[in-house]
Design a protein that fits this description.
Distance between the termini of chain A: 39 Å
Largest sheet of chain A: 5 strands, mixed
Low-confidence stretches of chain B: 1-12, 27-41
Oligomer: heterodimer
Strand content of chain A: 35-45%
Helix content of chain A: 10-25%
Largest sheet of chain B: 9 strands, mixed
Strand order of the largest sheet of chain A: 5-6-2-1-9
Radius of gyration of chain A: 17 Å
Number of helices of chain A: 2
Structural class of chain A: mainly beta
Structural class of chain B: alpha+beta
Distance between the termini of chain B: 37 Å
Mean pLDDT of chain A: 80
Helix content of chain B: 10-25%
């Protein structure tokens, strides 16, 4: 991606984007939106309709009646084949889905939630290198968590 | 014997002699016809696969009854993915098995082919975008189905396993219908001839379905009772590796054996130079992994690289623009042209792999072009037959002197190849823009005396009778700036054989068997991409080296020489030198 970025910078002026997808953060043009950007995020506690069973990393099945729902508003590539991996620190968000102006995901394990405190949001698209989103994950402002029903 | 024949012949009456003449004549005619058919006839007798076949095509569509939650066409994928896009109206524990079907009139049994779309706006009926392929395939005697996985679409991540599971759940329904007396499809489906096709994320999903078909198979679990006979996989501009960091809900750990390494099933991938979504040609890596060099060949793999093709135009519902416009935009081909190419390859591939019409390999070898295919569009192809013996695949380490077959040695004659480099073909930019997942040789020259010489042991030569084609993957390397290659100009070199002491064949030119065009200088998308040095398979029937020389014998083969004497300079990447069927 280092190589691609350099090439991209050189060729940016002749590479027009047709669907309004914004350009990467590495480019210098200030009037274009970055490819990926977090504007804000919120965390609520979600009461699940039915317990959700999930195996933890040791293979033990756990049952969760609540989850932490993280909703991120911002700019993300969407509805594309190529994928965007999202990380908090080194933790890869296992799966996420979209909302109108962003993405959401769930964290079921409270210990995991706590371990992510202060870690940086990062992302990777396709084969590119992992990049910082220049925002850190924190639950401090969200506590006590609002509760929401699934 | 001669005496007996002569005596017997003399003892025959005139009438019997006439009858015998007639019988001999018919036998000869049958023999000639048999040879003609066995050799695959001439290319002009190969039917254009994009022209509809003779079967009458019928339509059907299946989906669950909304008011019946017990309908077996509802399924639960929530263990695999449970974060649907906000625009999706289903919960993941209750998603529909919905398919559009085109099938031939008649009793069958017919092979079954499922095609699945990739990621897109979930409110768009992406499954409708391949009806043009379904119609064509059904007319050639296939039950063809386009699978709706729109409920997994949108701003989604790590739903790849769910995409694969849904495909397998569709196959479960087909197995049930095929064994249910009274069902329209009772005994009409050949469940031993199943093909899967997928576009974009669907392109990786078919390889993961192939993997899960055995890996997650559990006969005791109705939701995971798979074990289908998946013979043939067709990937259209696929992604690759999205499964890698996904979690297996059965173990809580990342999936094992991913990304998939396809074996025992034919694999094909096609991709466009101007793909403005999967702009890093991810399927090239799946192609490289398929039919690994460490395993005996059991199936084919093939590849099509279409100059000017984009991502979305393979699907008629996805419009004519990609998320990113790849320049030079003037080279982008029309949707009609792109789909015409897709039709020819889609139809030929499944006829070749599921209906045993092996002559269509000619298309994948780059040897034929059909009238339905637009002219003037550069198509690069790679093809490896199921039966091959590697001479040099460069996977044994960096020592270029040692070949892959025991006893094979290689030499850079007089040191005139420069670079002469064992190289991992994975760079996605300079120096060589190769984008692959394999090792090979990069060679350059500024002298027409440059030569790559392969010494061949008798044990390899002895296999030529059953592997009569010399095959290699070779392509021009993109250079920025161009130094050794000339943009816009095809590359060429010659090949000669030594057949024992003192017997050197006349040279054959690579260009007589496939063109080696210069790569397109495409611009990258914000997430990656750019120029790609894609290789092309050059397949040379070995008998062409010895034509008109009755005393030259291929079983005396002792050396293969690639002589870079056709252009004053050049830079090429080479891999998978082999003899093959």
């Amino acid at each position: 991606m280092k190589r691609i970025s350099a090439f991209f910078l050189v060729s940016l002026s002749c590479c027009s984007l047709v669907t309004g997808l914004p350009t990467t953060r590495t480019q210098t043009s200030s009037h274009e939106k970055p490819l990926v950007e977090i504007h804000s995020y919120e965390i609520v506690q979600l009461e699940l309709k039915k317990p959700f069973r999930l195996r933890d990393a040791e293979g033990k099945e756990q049952s969760y009646e609540r989850a932490y729902l993280v909703t991120i508003r911002g700019t993300f590539p969407h509805d594309q084949g190529i994928g965007m991996e999202l990380f908090i620190g080194d933790y890869p968000v296992p799966e996420y889905g979209g909302i109108k102006d962003g993405i959401y995901f769930r964290i079921y394990d409270e210990k995991l939630l706590n371990s992510l405190e202060g870690k940086e949001f990062r992302y990777r698209i396709g084969r590119a290198e992992i990049r910082s989103l220049e925002k850190r994950f924190s639950t401090k402002e969200a506590r006590p968590f609002k509760t929401q029903k699934e | 014997m001669k005496t007996w024949v002569g005596r017997s012949w003399n003892s025959l009456s005139i009438r019997n002699r006439k009858a015998t003449y007639s019988a001999i004549w018919h036998c000869c005619a049958l023999l000639v016809a048999g040879i003609f058919l066995a050799q695959g006839c001439d290319d002009e007798h190969l039917k254009d696969p994009a022209v509809p076949g003779h079967h009458t095509v019928l339509s059907w569509e299946y989906q669950p009854a909304p008011a019946n939650p017990a309908d077996p066409l509802w399924t639960d994928v929530s263990a695999y993915f449970n974060s649907p896009d906000g625009r999706v109206t289903y919960t993941m524990d209750h998603v529909p098995l919905h398919g559009i079907v085109r099938y031939p009139k008649g009793h069958g049994p017919f092979p079954l082919v499922l095609i699945v779309h990739g990621n897109h706006d979930p409110t768009v009926s992406s499954e409708q975008g391949y009806i043009y392929l379904l119609d064509l395939l059904a007319s050639h005697g296939f039950i063809s189905v386009s699978v709706d996985e729109n409920f997994l679409n949108g701003w989604s991540w790590h739903e790849m396993d769910a995409r694969a599971i849904v495909l397998l759940r569709h196959l479960q329904r087909w197995r049930t219908w095929n064994s249910a007396p009274g069902n329209t499809f009772y005994h009409k489906v050949d469940m031993n001839r199943i093909g899967l096709a997928g576009h974009s994320r669907g392109g990786e999903a078919v390889t993961i379905a192939w993997l899960f078909n055995t890996m997650l198979n559990n006969p005791a679990d109705p939701d995971h009772n798979f074990n289908f006979t998946l013979k043939s996989l067709f990937a259209i501009a696929p992604v690759d590796g999205q499964i890698v960091t996904d979690t297996n809900p059965h173990t809580g750990m990342p999936y094992a054996n991913v990304p998939a390494v396809i074996q025992n099933a034919d694999y094909f991938v096609m991709h466009g130079t101007h793909d403005g979504d999967v702009s890093d040609f991810e399927g090239y890596r799946a192609f490289d992994r398929a039919q690994p060099v460490t395993s005996p060949g059991t199936a084919t793999k093939s590849l099509l690289w279409v100059y000017g093709a984009i991502h979305n135009q393979w699907n008629t519902m996805w419009g004519t623009a990609d998320p990113c416009l790849v320049n030079p935009a003037g080279q982008i081909i029309s949707a009609t042209d792109e789909q015409s190419i897709g039709k020819a390859f889609f139809s030929a591939y499944f006829q070749m792999t599921l209906q045993h019409k092996h002559r269509y390999a000619r298309l994948f070898e780059g040897k034929v072009r059909f009238p339905s295919m637009p002219s003037g569009i550069t198509l690069m192809t790679q093809y490896q037959s199921e039966d091959r013996v590697f001479i040099d695949n460069y996977e044994q380490g960096p020592n270029l002197a040692t070949g892959s077959f025991p006893g094979v040695t290689n030499a850079n004659v007089s040191g005139l190849l420069s670079p002469y480099q064992h190289y991992t073909f994975s760079d996605d930019g300079p120096p060589f823009y190769l984008w692959e997942q394999t090792d090979g040789l990069v060679g350059g020259w500024n002298s027409s005396s440059a030569e790559y010489e392969i010494d061949v042991p008798p044990a390899l030569a002895a296999q030529i009778s059953t592997h009569p084609v010399l095959s290699l993957r070779v392509g021009q390397v993109f250079e920025s700036p161009a130094v050794k290659n000339t943009p816009g100009v095809n590359q060429d070199f010659s090949i000669v054989l030594e057949l024992g002491p003192g017997v050197v064949t006349n040279p054959l030119h690579a260009s007589a068997f496939n063109v080696l065009p210069y790569p397109v200088a495409t611009t990258p998308c914000p997430w990656g991409g750019g120029p790609k040095s894609v290789l092309q398979t050059v397949r040379i029937p070995l008998h062409e080296f010895v034509e008109h020389h009755h005393n030259w014998h291929l079983h005396n083969l002792s050396k293969i020489r690639l002589k870079f004497d056709q252009k004053p300079s050049g830079l090429v990447a080479i891999d998978d030198i082999q003899i093959a069927r």
